[in-house]
Amino acid sequence: MTAIKQAAIIGGGVIGAGWISRLIENGIDVSVYDPAADAAEKVEAVLGNSRYAYSKLISGPRCIEGSVQFCDSVSAAVASAELIVESVPERLDIKQTVYAEIEASAATNALIASSTSGIMPSDLQAKMKHPERLLVAHPFNPVYLLPLVELVGGKRTSMATIERARKIYHSLGMHPLHVKKEIEAFIADRLLEAVWRESLWLVKDGIATTQDVDDAVRFGFGLRYAQMGVFDTYRVAGGEAGMRHFMAQFGPCLKWPWTKLTDVPEFTEELVDLIAGQSDEQSGHMSIREMERIRDDNLIAILHGLKGNDWGAGKTLAQYEHQLLQAANDPA
Amino acid sequence: MTAIKQAAIIGGGVIGAGWISRLIENGIDVSVYDPAADAAEKVEAVLGNSRYAYSKLISGPRCIEGSVQFCDSVSAAVASAELIVESVPERLDIKQTVYAEIEASAATNALIASSTSGIMPSDLQAKMKHPERLLVAHPFNPVYLLPLVELVGGKRTSMATIERARKIYHSLGMHPLHVKKEIEAFIADRLLEAVWRESLWLVKDGIATTQDVDDAVRFGFGLRYAQMGVFDTYRVAGGEAGMRHFMAQFGPCLKWPWTKLTDVPEFTEELVDLIAGQSDEQSGHMSIREMERIRDDNLIAILHGLKGNDWGAGKTLAQYEHQLLQAANDPA
Predict the structure, then answer these.
(1) Which of A328, B12, B233, B240 is most buried (CB neighbours < 10 A)?
(2) CATH number of B188-328
């Protein structure tokens, strides 16, 4: 028994399509609304990736795939959905219009989850009739493979909504992280934006090419971050003397570059050209589809290889996701 | 035939000991100078980790391990070394004093490589007699497993030094990244410091605990960064429309948080207490040794699993490192 049986996706871009993949791979039927003429084609391309990925990720028998139905309106898509995922462009006015359409047709107890990566849920729910059932559930690309989903409630979101959402995302094999206070960009994207800002400086100042930055990440700290976060990594670096010692040692030493590195680069046409040109040189010989396949193969290898102390001795991350899923779906 | 046969390590902390591991695992003899009474004991603990790691990393026959000899002085340690690695504390005056001692006894054609993670090589070499052979070769912890090493020359470093260093680090199975212009913190640590600064804000403001931040990293973008860097990740996210499209879409959206996120948190006792306390709660049930073992097992799984488009079709990162090593060590 899965936590839900029927979901709706409003907006079938990369993130919406990723949600469709994760849902149907877990046996949930999905209705989709996206006004773009090529929406079905684009969704199908992502589903192709995710079917391939799950066939490699899961060695045992897989779920019977849920159905995907494209609808002509928001109203038709949400009519019988228990979970409604909004993945439309990042504009508050567009999102609020979509919520009005959703509320006109959805069951009042349906959960409404925005995929926004930055807008505050209190702003999203400002004009809603039943704001208590709206939350942000912010996933990471590719949604069908990465376990993280940030759950953020607004001022008027009920705790019952957060708890229900947590259960649903567990039942999709995900790792829901409840962000306790509303802030712009939540947790992960604040970190990512800091990296992005510094990366732009490095390229703009001619210190590094896009390839250099990418190599510095994937041959270095990226390998650490895949398996241990910021604080645990430094805890280990501090050695037996502990975290306090590490901070005492490392804190002052970091002071001077901090000040320098907090300027914001101007987002000029010239900078866009520089980055886009270098990126073409770096990876223009591959199609996006090829790059996605490389990425997914590697993520699968990592999910199969990683073992976490905190998710059951000897379990890999792939097995842990299955364990979450099974636990959530056990008839209680 | 390896690129070098004899190296010296000045400073046997976590980084120095990591260098010893990587060198002796590649058959190079190492002499060590560290004035601390427990230096040999601390180095031995790291060697224990690296021997275990290499036995799992390499399935075929391994190199005959190089020897480790502790010396009573810098002078004795460097006398017959072709590569001299300086891994002493991050203070310019201490490092300059060590270089003076090194220059008094080392061969004039020995390479001197600083492990500093932030000090400019031009400052390091300011008082040297033969400054042309000094460079920064900045590794990442654990040095015996992570392939990245940033090579940075100062104003008076010769290109021959950079080229020779590149060959040596290749011959250690590493990925040398030449940072073309000198800047504080080089490439990777600028990115890492940005992440660290944001992480401190998140905990200080009560948005997240250290555990939340770590989970946001390792269940989300950390898995991406292990196998694809910042720019390639966004290139894929932009889809067929390309990098220019991604930047046009994503650039303005990021503008507002940038401004907010560039403040620098004050490094108070209170903040140190908060972080250290949360870190204890998160991981205090494990010893540092246990955490290192978990980290290394996971890194080995990743190195065995990852395949890169740019390092030979079908090759894993572990195989790629071996390929670098073999190519560098082939009699040319």
Answers:
(1) B12
(2) 1.10.1040.10
